[in-house]
Design brief:
Structural class: alpha+beta
CATH architecture of the largest domain: Orthogonal Bundle
CATH topology of the largest domain: hpI Integrase, Chain A
CATH superfamily of the largest domain: Intergrase catalytic core
Radius of gyration: 34 Å
Number of strands: 7
Distance between the termini: 92 Å
Number of helices: 18
Strand content: 5-15%
Order of helices and strands: HEEEEHHHHHHHHHHHEEEHHHHHH
Length: 411
């Protein structure tokens, strides 16, 4: 039973310490300020712990708090250490809460700054510009952890039917930014901008496929590829080697432009690209035909550069237009770098019997649906290796001697 009562406490005016019992005491200062203190002993040392000011903390509340501290003591814990740990936990929670108020626009800008060092100026500006045009007005000022599926749909639906390719690029950018937010512990749960198994159920996939078909790149006929490779092989220009690598691997131009020696295992004949280097942000391995391995073995490394094709600009790699300039100089201003992927695909359609999914995967197009992908996780690398060996064999034989053999028509 406590020694103090509320009326007595209210009437206390003389400074001093007044015991209530079981270590709880009321301290009255000369100024009239009153506060509760819990005195206890731990490991032979006497300690005092503030419980709160009176009347903000009343007698009943002070006794309950003191009882809780005694329970901690009985369990072998230091009440002050426990209180400090709880305060730190609450402060951490407040810091996390404050951090989670970071808006999508700020996070997107942070993402661009973190990853844009390896982008061209044009790509870096265009990446942010698309978000400025289509996303920031809808979700730019929203805290990252508040963005849900309904917000992503509000961004995409107005442009999905009319600007499907742009809309899908914006969707992919939102997915990247929100993934970065989750990595920084700014949000939890699934990514609302994810396509497979999520937005593909809410937006027309037919529009997306039509948009892909609508974008045609001027391409060289596959029958003319060997002749071009003969010309390229006669040049000592480093860009010519890059062009040969582009053609013989079916890679995209930026994949070749930023190709690094660390990505290559020439002994195994594999070019491994990390997720951040791929358009769909999924790591991808390209099997290298013997002709490609031999070509890369003979390519000298430039001291101080990690890249196969270094350059003098901020990016450290050859200029984005180097391959186009080379093609124009060879009299091929009517074709594009990206068009060589179409040349390869047309050749595979016309002259081989490789399964469609293998040919598509060779171009890093995984068109399996979610169920297929879940049960078939193969990337067909050995089948793709055989395909790319056949392609390199065809493409590097001089035109006059290039007779299609039956072994190009494998099942």
């Amino acid at each position: 039973m406590g020694k103090l009562n509320p009326k007595q406490i209210d009437n206390l005016t003389e400074s001093g310490t007044y015991e209530d019992g079981d270590g709880l005491r009321l301290v009255v200062k000369a100024t009239g300020r009153k506060s509760w203190v819990m005195r206890y002993q731990l490991n032979g040392k006497r300690r005092e712990m503030g419980v709160g000011a009176y009347p903000e903390v009343g007698l009943r509340t002070a006794r309950l708090a003191a009882a809780q501290q005694r329970a901690l003591l009985a369990a072998g814990e230091d009440p002050m250490a426990a209180r400090d740990a709880e305060r730190e936990r609450q402060q951490d929670a407040q810091r996390v809460k404050a951090a989670r108020r970071i808006t999508f626009q700020v996070l997107a800008t942070d993402y661009q700054e973190a990853h844009g060092a390896n982008w061209s100026d044009k790509w870096r500006k265009g990446w942010l510009r698309k978000l400025e045009l289509y996303a920031f007005s809808v979700i730019g000022k929203l805290p990252t952890d508040e963005i849900g599926t309904e917000h992503v749909l509000r961004v995409l639906r107005p442009i999905w039917a009319t600007k499907t390719r742009t809309a899908d690029e914006v969707r992919g950018q939102i997915e990247q930014v929100l993934d970065a937010g989750k990595a920084r512990r700014l949000r939890d749960g699934d990514n609302p901008a994810r396509w497979r198994g999520h937005l593909d159920n809410l937006l027309s996939n037919a529009e997306k496929k039509k948009a892909r078909k609508r974008q045609h790149f001027p391409a060289m006929k596959w029958q003319d590829i060997p002749g071009l490779l003969v010309k390229l092989a006669q040049s000592e220009n480093r860009a010519a080697v890059a062009a040969r690598l582009l053609i013989l691997t079916g890679a995209r131009a930026r994949m070749v432009q930023f190709a690094a020696w660390s990505e290559l295992d020439l002994q195994a004949g594999v070019w491994s690209l990390p997720a951040e280097r791929m358009k769909m942000r999924q790591a991808f391995a390209i099997p290298l035909a013997p002709e490609v391995v031999q070509m890369l073995h003979s390519l000298p490394r430039i001291e101080g550069s990690p890249y196969l094709f270094p350059g003098q600009g901020k990016s450290g790699v050859m200029h984005a237009n180097a391959l186009r300039t080379l093609l124009h100089a060879l009299g091929h201003s009517d074709i594009t770098r990206h068009g060589f992927r179409s040349s390869f695909r047309d050749w595979a359609n016309e002259r081989t019997h490789y399964p469609r999914e293998v040919c598509e995967m060779a171009l890093a197009h995984d068109e399996r649906d979610q169920t297929e992908a879940a049960y078939s996780r193969s990337d067909f690398i050995e089948k793709r290796r055989a395909l790319m060996i056949d392609w390199a064999r065809y493409a590097t034989i001089p035109p006059a001697a290039n007779v299609i053999q039956d072994d190009f028509k494998r099942a």
